[in-house]
Design goal:
- By secondary structure, this protein is mostly helical.
- It has a domain of 74 residues.
- The chain has six helices and no strands.
- The radius of gyration is 25 Å and the shape is flat.
């Protein structure tokens, strides 16, 4: 009898440990996806580095993409193409932002005794080149998305974007 009780208590403790480990793993996964946690998540999850694709935060963007995919009734192949195209745009934007993270050129330009128009033109040319790369990336991504979707899906996407624009205009 004593042996059976000890075995039963051991099984209960083991089951509790498994449940606890599962809950901890689920909580960690939720935090990595940007879900609710003690120190952020939810809408605040966007604060973290890496944006919506990063290690933490950004569940809202993924949820919006998921809802869009459901509305368009996309296939897994289409979803992969669209995600790749969107990621390409964000990557070009990250690269442009990285180029501009060092403001030392602007600081030198502003602290000089006289304004150096040639240096200012150089900085302006650098900005134009960065923006041109982002524009090219956006156009290429739009082409990829256009090719991935059929006519019905493109119309639904256009309607969704139009509606999104009207909603944001109401809040401005």
């Amino acid at each position: 009898m004593k042996k059976e009780i000890t075995l039963m208590i051991g099984c209960i403790i083991g089951a509790a440990c498994v449940v606890g480990a599962f809950k901890i793993a689920r909580m960690a996964a939720r935090r990595m996806r940007g879900g609710r946690g003690r120190h952020g998540g939810g809408c605040g999850g966007m604060r973290s580095e890496g944006g919506w694709r990063g290690r933490r935060g950004g569940g809202g963007q993924r949820m919006m993409m998921r809802m869009l995919f459901e509305r368009l009734e996309t296939s897994p192949g289409q979803e992969k193409a669209i995600k790749s195209a969107v990621e390409q745009v964000f990557e070009s934007m990250r690269a442009a932002r990285h180029e501009w993270s060092d403001a030392s050129e602007l600081a030198v330009l502003l602290t000089g005794e006289t304004f150096d128009a040639t240096a200012a033109e150089g900085i302006s040319g650098k900005a134009d080149a960065s923006f041109a790369r982002v524009r090219v990336s956006i156009v290429e991504s739009m082409r990829q998305i256009h090719e991935a979707l059929d006519e019905r899906q493109r119309k639904l996407l256009a309607d969704w974007l139009r509606d999104l624009g009207h909603r944001s205009a109401r809040w401005s």
